[in-house]
Amino acid sequence: MNLTKDFFITLSQNKLLTKGAKRWGLQLGAQTVVAGTNIPEMIRSVQELNSQGISATIDNLGEFVFEKSEALEAKEQILHVIEAIHENGVDAHISLKPTQLGLDIDAHFCLGNLREIVHAAHHYDIFINFDMEDYGHLQPSFDLIDELSKEYDNIGTVIQAYFYQSDEIIEKYKDFRLRIVKGAYKEPENLAYQGKNDIDKNYLKLIEYHLLNGKFTSIATHDHHVINHVKKFVRENNISNDKFEFQMLYGFRKDLQLKLASEGYNFCTYVPFGHDWYGYFMRRLAERPQNLQLVSKQLFNKKTNTLIGLGAGAFILGRLSKQRKKSEE
Ligand SMILES: Cc1cc2nc3c(=O)[nH]c(=O)nc-3n(C[C@H](O)[C@H](O)[C@H](O)COP(=O)(O)OP(=O)(O)OC[C@H]3O[C@@H](n4cnc5c(N)ncnc54)[C@H](O)[C@@H]3O)c2cc1C
């Protein structure tokens, strides 16, 4: 089986497999990159990170939400996480995805949910990061941010370097705390750079721009070339450590996470937790199929093979039907 980026991206968007994975739990191998399924487990992971000088951004996993009840459940859960951060006094903030709070159902309903979350977090001085999803959700997410930033200053978001329009976006949002990433979704050629060199070049350009002109910068990457470049850039431009941080995902390059923290850089780990881990996990495999090596042998148990096998079937059928449509045109 050829485990390509397209293959894992297709799996990440498969609603049926998402449901199946929720039922089967983390036994499929994702526990290496997901910090538990409930709040106490997640808090223990965050406490361990904090004891190593690392802060956390907590993601209550969830996407493909098309039922109001599910969005409300997610909102309640995130409110509990905010309470847990406060009660346990951990060094952490929240990352969330607008689609989990109902963006695909009704933007006004989603705004109401987000307002409750941002308001509760504001009360405890907790920062909320709006993760960025695929292009279809880009402008709707910025509309929500524009609306909420009229009332609250504890929000920030993500700039995805693969989009051609990212330099306009970063300029518009330079007064926000921004996480800058390469971009995790599959986007078409008319919207986004496709080649690694182009994406990397734009990524460095955006990071440098925000470090020089913007508010706080979170450089979210596992790429040591980028990290080394940033270290040199901040030294040469006298940018102090309190203007930026490095971020990586939970379970990835732990040695490098600890090294950067011990060198005195601010370091924040993205800590996903919950039952809805499947789309998140498949996107990590799409970025780097070698990430399969990260997870234990359990990944290749009978259930996982069924899951990947079913996904492969759906992927191949999808490809065949696209090819057939093209030849009929
Ligand atoms: C904290 C965080 C939050 C994110 N939030 C978002 C978001 O909101 N929206 C979004 O679209 N995307 C998000 N992403 C994903 C991001 O867009 C990229 O898809 C992802 O980070 C992969 O790109 P990379 O920069 O890490 O390195 P890559 O381009 O994948 O890798 C570059 C090089 O780095 C090295 N490398 C990478 N990974 C490893 C590893 N595990 N072990 C050893 N070497 C490695 C290799 O030499 C590799 O060739 C987020 C990423 C992080 C870390």
User: Regarding CATH, which class?
Assistant: Alpha Beta
CATH architecture field = Alpha-Beta Barrel
- Strand order, biggest sheet? 1-2-3-4-5-6-7-8
The low-confidence runs, each spanning 5 or more residues with pLDDT under 50, are: 296-300, 323-329
End-to-end Cα distance, whole Å, is: 29 Å
Described by its quaternary structure, the protein is: single chain
Beta-strand content: 5-15%
Shape: globular
Pfam family, one: Pro_dh
Keywords: FAD, Flavoprotein, Nucleotide-binding, Oxidoreductase, Proline metabolism
Pathway: Amino-acid degradation; L-proline degradation into L-glutamate; L-glutamate from L-proline: step 1/2
Cofactor: FAD
In short:
This protein has 329 residues and is of the alpha/beta class.
How does this model look, in words?
The protein has helices at 5-12, 15-24, 39-51, 68-88, 107-123, 138-148, 166-172, 196-213, 224-236, 254-262, 278-287, 302-328; strands spanning 55-60, 92-96, 128-130, 155-160, 178-181, 217-220, 244-249, 267-273. With 329 residues, the protein is an alpha/beta fold. An 8-stranded parallel β-barrel has the order 1-2-3-4-5-6-7-8, surrounded by 7 helices. Strand 1, helix 4 and strand 2 (92-96) form a beta-alpha-beta unit. Helix 2 packs antiparallel against helix 12 (302-328). The chain is globular, with a radius of gyration of 19 Å. The relative contact order is 0.17. Bound molecules: flavin-adenine dinucleotide. Residues 131-132, 158, 160, 181-185, 220-223, 247-249, 252-253, 270, 287-288, 291 line the site of flavin-adenine dinucleotide.
